[in-house]
């Protein structure tokens, strides 16, 4: 028998904000077609840079209002529940990681300079989420499956700075049988490692390898040539993925040599990646808006301070927070 508990209405404030964000996203999509250059700059160099800090504070701040999630859950009530089984969830999560690794370098080649291309990206995400929501229950069709932002939410959202409830799933209908972020943000990343979380093989799991590679991936993204130099795709991807491979190799070797447990390593990898992001991004944002270079320093200080605080606090809040010797 399918389990269909009585729906619990979300707090009205979240509902209103959710629809405002959805309407704003529709307006942004239209603006990408009517004024592509200006709107594209707002999208990539004003809105997107805020998301990592938002995830560190609490990823539910975004997940509660994400317009793509709203489309995915538009017809989520009153239907036969079709959950995302654990095996499929793991496969879809790996696919989402692959999508992230594929799409981000395209910013250097295309998205940063083409509002039309960014519109296509937004439309594709909206369409995939809507269709996924028709096939599976609630967030199982896209948000908890192959959304390319999900691995970032899991990594940055594992030690939230403030408490924010999940305002979408009331009550839980068990739409996802594996590593649901909304059920337990602090353990979602660890659960994503699967059975190998208890062994040294965790560094080769899709999520484990992604976490350890992300710091280098971020550095490689900013070291890669941008569209102004007319780079080849091979050069961009080789730079980004090459730095990611070096990062994975170095951090995996260090974690295994010191017998650092996955819970500690995931927090450290997230801190390094977020730190690298907010070291490079302020200068890029200042350049995009023709601001004085001093703005870059002004943006770096608070963002890097938040990242450092988040990382240290995360280690203290980790039950097995100290590296251990003789681990498996």
Order of helices and strands: HHHHHHHHHHHHHH
Unreliably modeled segments: 1-8, 321-328
Helix content: 55-70%
Main sheet attributes: strand count, strand direction, barrel closure:
none
Radius of gyration: 20 Å
Structural class: mainly alpha
| Strand content range | under 5%
Q: From the structure provided, what is the oligomeric state, counting identical versus distinct chains?
A: single chain
Number of strands: 0
Mean pLDDT: 90
Count of DSSP helices?
A: 14
Ends distance: 41 Å
Task: Note the main attributes of this structure.
328 residues; mainly alpha; globular; disordered C terminus
Report on the structure:
This protein is an all-alpha fold and 328 residues long. The protein contains 14 helices and no strands. It has helices at 12-34, 36-47, 51-58, 60-63, 67-72, 86-103, 106-111, 115-135, 150-156, 185-192, 206-223, 233-257, 262-288, 294-317. Helix 1 (12-34) packs across helix 2, helix 11 runs parallel beside helix 13 (262-288) and helix 13 runs antiparallel to helix 14. It is globular. The relative contact order is 0.12.
